[in-house]
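Quick board copy: two proteins, each given as sequence then tokens.
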Amino acid sequence: MDDRAFALVKQLRHELHEHPELSNEEHWTKSHLVEFLRRYTALEIVDRGSWFYAVYRSEKEGRRIAFRADYDAIPMEELIDLPYGSKVPGVAHKCGHDGHAASLAGFALEIDRTGSDNSIFFLFQPAEETGEGAVQCTPFIKENDIDEIFAYHNMSGIPCRSIAVIDGTAACASRGMILHFEGAPSHASAPEKGRNPAYAIGKVLCALPDLADTRHTKGLVLCTVIQVAVGERAFGVSAGTGELLLTIRALFEDELDALQSRIEGEALRQAGQYELTVRFSTVDSFPETVNHKESSDKVRDVAREKGYELVELSEPHRGSEDFGYFTKETKGAMFYIGNGEDYPPLHTHAYDFRDELIPIAVAMFKGLAEGQKGSEKASQNDEGHG
């Protein structure tokens, strides 16, 4: 990646950072990325409404390889002083999706300049944070006969500019659960005349550690209490409604489903005991993200060829990533590029994407696109920007 391309993409990243948009609201972001690619490349662009992809179509009979980046922000304030800080109150790029999108745009510049023996697809996806974006985009895989798909995420807690990868499950499946209990209010002086859901909710809460016991599971299962809400701030009224919000996660989707069933069963039992009704809903559903070994081995090969430090992850990431929808449809892998062992974690106020990771991502993507073997180590241009 030459200096001019890096400067263009770095500026693009800063512009995306200044104008963050939440999941399914990324109208400016999408338009800005499309405009950038139209201005600086001759790639074909396919607009699919809320998302889009660009294509380099090779004249040779190569493979069809896709690379994906997300571009939504999260609901957090920008509290650090940046010359390109968020201009949108309460919204900021604190997961690095601005950097992911800029990296993919930088890779598009590189392929547009050098060409490829393979046809390369650059998929720009919305709404990763809510688990809704990849579902919208999955028809792309079959429509274009994609042979393999790759993506990366920046990661704090591992050496800066290192490449981390794992075979099999790379990120947990998860979903949000909402348990809504309905009873009947009464005067606070006569609670026996109503049906207060507080006690049923309390018993469900107490049961959660046993329901999420991992002694009888294949892998991690976890239940996190997000919110408990019962009644209103009215001291003369015994509550008649209540909600319990949970996030459940597991290494394997079948065990996630089983955990949800156990929680719902306990809620139904407690609702029956206290003469309540209970209804269930789910939000922010993510699949397990599974790396195909053939694809993750390619990540390893390219990292070694480029001279990057390779980190073998000993366990999957507990967080979730909707990239897993794509690897249900075709071969693929997600890898990680290190921010630094002591770098601020994602989704914290102190975090900002490191621009120096962009050339690393471009070099990795290019190596994966070409399937190079025994190539020379990354040039100073690949490694030295930032």
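And the next:
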Amino acid sequence: MVYPLEALSQTLNGQLLHAKNANAAVSVCIDSRTLQPGDWFICIRGERTDGHLHLEQALDKGAAGAVVQPERIPENLHDREFPQIRVPDPNLALREWASSARSMFPGKVLGITGSNGKTSTKEILARLCRRLDGMVDATHGNLNNLIGVPLTLLGASSESQWWVIEMGTNQFGEIGELSRISRPDGVILTSIAQSHLEFLKNTEGVVREKSDIMKGMSPGSPLVLPADVKHLDFIRKQATQAGVKIIRYAFADTDFDAEWKLKLREGTSGETVFELFGEEFHPGKVNPLQLRNLAASLVLLYECGVDQGQLQQTVSGLELTVPGRFEWKRLDRGWLVDDTYNANPGSFRGVLDSIRSMHSSESLTVVAGPMAELGKDAKKMHQEIGESIRHSGCSKLLVLGGTLGEGYLEGWKSSGGSTNDAIRFEDLGELTDAFHNCWNKEGIVLVKGSRSAAMERFVNAVITKNQ
């Protein structure tokens, strides 16, 4: 998109200087290391850095101009004339610029938030949209915060038909602000669970923050959510105030009331077949966790005007594997389930339930890293997951970490697990060696932990050695 500088300066509540030979901004950057000639450099401030410290490098690399906070411009640049928009807060300016980009976009913006399954659902929804129209922009990785979402909006093409935006949070106020600038035409709320409790405190805090997604939605817009979502009465109340339309989905074999129910049918050769919107869908082999995310995506697209016939064609043969999210990898005569992308108590229980619904009698080994941002009750929650692991029929538990790792073991032991079958390690290398010594080359190995635990290092080491 093209942003005339005079108008952009007003949008950002800024002062335009030294722009006689510059008429418009086309692209933005916040990292001088990746800046391309012609980009406008926004000097945002983060926890560990300040863009103003890298302003000279950005200008030397060919930045067309910069958004700056004047009192933070380095002294050695005070006499250097370059196109600039001076603003009180560059971080806010980034968001306002993104909001302007959103107002210029003629297509549909689809939002996703929730405690679990955001990124997997985003990937599935984006793939469906690509099959519908070809032109789609979506959040890269998990760039779902007050920096990542604006950058996604500013980097998206106005020629796309769909923008698929993931919105995350770890403290109050973020989701409402992200919704304000992205103004989604429809939203999926994947779940409400124990996540980011260090700041959100409890699930009441989580639902309050997640429900703020409605602040940027227009009246009548659909909010798609599972019929079994926690705190549904609170969400309903917020939806009524915002004029947002709640659309629930559920599986037909449950007792939950829902606008749309997905009915599983008998498929051949293990393939998944289901009925939805009065049509039969054949997505191939789909695990239970991804089927839930697929259902939410289909319901949102249907509520946004895509007819069931188009959706039926779009689903056929769709690739649903998402790296690090319930990803099954062959390991000797067994399987390694890579669910290392992230973890909280709800997602941990969900993956255990899904494994057992698919393979109820296979031997199960769990390799668990710590779950982060759970607040003052973090160890207790690890104890509870230790109990869930034991109750899943797990035969061997290997954990990484200090106090939180000990929590897993305490829960395992309190539910009758043998101390000989649950071991804690402080070092990833030691854990990996111990796994190779005890692995009998059969059954299922689940690997899970929060992003900060980087348990994919274990997965990579094990798969590499097994090749």
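Board note added afterward: The mean pLDDT is 91.
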